Amino acid sequence: MLAGGLGKSLLIAIMVALVLLLLVGFVIGGIGAAIRGESPYVPRPEIHLPPQPVFPASKRDLHLGLSGDMKSNVHDEVVADAGDSHGSSGSEHEVEHHSTPLGINEFAVTNTMLSAWFASLVLIVFFVLGSGRKRLIPGRMQGLVETLFEAIINFSSGVLGADMARKAFPIVATIFFFVLFNAWLALFPFYQFLGFVGEDNKILVHLVRPAGTDLNMPLALALVSFVFVEYWGFKAHGIGYLKKFFAFGSVFKKGLFGGLIDIFVGLLEFISELIRVVSFTFRLFGNMTAGEILVVMITFLAPLVVTNFVYGLELLVGLIQSVIFAGLTLVFLSVAVQHEEH
Predict the structure, then answer these.
(1) Neighbours of 296 (CB within 10 A)
(2) What digits encode the pLDDT tens for the residues 231-267?
């Protein structure tokens, strides 16, 4: 009876503390600051869509406009802006710290690249710990890894069949876990507060940023999925796999009208096959980028408690996106392997 009463009192105290923190978050956040006419507790967020170079330092400074020719160019723009705005110092500060994207012939280690390496390292450590010392009676880590593998194998077998599922397992599992770990690891707080600061102690470049918010990573995964599906399509049907897209022989089998219909349908199939790369890329990129923007904006508007609900939503979104990416790869692979000419 006493323990039950103590637990109830503790629960009420936690709920009251959460409500108070919620109110404090609104007061010190962007919403309350706008009402009070003061500066918010969290600085106004700046969203950088292109990945930002972090190493080497010379590249980082160059694209921040802090060194080299770019600095002189930025200075000219600042002078022009100052003339237009009658010497406003605020515009100078913003222009100097605006990061420009890398050129097509430039190479640097970006914050999204570091994030992808970090996720890959965590993946390797996780599965090495889970499968490095295999035992007949599995421990917790081995049991977790075996459960995850079994779930993916069963999911793949439901789409492809047991034999093909085992052949496709390495690629499908890698895509699933890479997308999932990238999405979930990006929710750790150090993604937001680790970075290179300027003279005003504000972060100019974050050290790591979610890899999914860099268009290059979803595009790379989409190309891997596309090549994987087409490889197995050719392996299953040989050169005859191209009849799915270029059905010119149907003119001799079905006549001119029926043949033209098959040719048109084949061309639509070919376009659809290529469009998959675009849809895969922007589906993942859009969801990950939108989630990143949502977390940053909610943190600015109401720093406490409310952000936790957004984090819960992002955990679900990361899981859904990894399942969708891996699942669609399985479905397209099934269509490519089982395709028959009718």
Answers:
(1) 17
(2) 999 998 888 888 888 877 766 667 776 778 878 888 8
Residue 337: partners with Cβ closer than 8 Å, 6 or more residues away: 160, 164, 232, 233, 236
Q: Is residue 17 part of a domain?
A: no
Is 322 within the bounds of a domain?
A: yes
Asked if residues 47 and 293 have their Cβ atoms less than 8 Å apart, the reply is: yes
> Cα separation of 274 and 268, whole Å?
10
Q: Indicate the number of domains in the chain.
A: 1
Task: Say if residues 285 and 213 touch (Cβ distance below 8 Å).
Answer: yes
Task: Determine contact, residues 218/285, Cβ cutoff 8 Å.
Answer: yes
Q: What is the pLDDT of residues 145-192, one digit of tens each?
A: 889 999 999 999 998 888 999 999 999 999 999 999 999 999 888 888
Q: Does some domain include residue 304?
A: yes
Q: In this structure, is residue 97 part of a structural domain?
A: no
**Cα(158)–Cα(152) distance, rounded to whole angstroms?**
10
Its sign, for the CA torsion 172, 177, 178, 184, is positive
Count the alpha carbons within 13 Å of 82 in the hemisphere toward its beta carbon: 14
Q: What is the pTM of this model?
A: 0.81
DSSP alpha helices (H): ranges in the chain? 2-28, 30-36, 57-63, 68-84, 89-96, 111-131, 140-160, 162-185, 190-193, 216-237, 250-301, 306-338
Domain housing 322: 110-338
3-class SS at 249? coil
Helix (H, G, I), strand (E, B) or coil at 77: helix
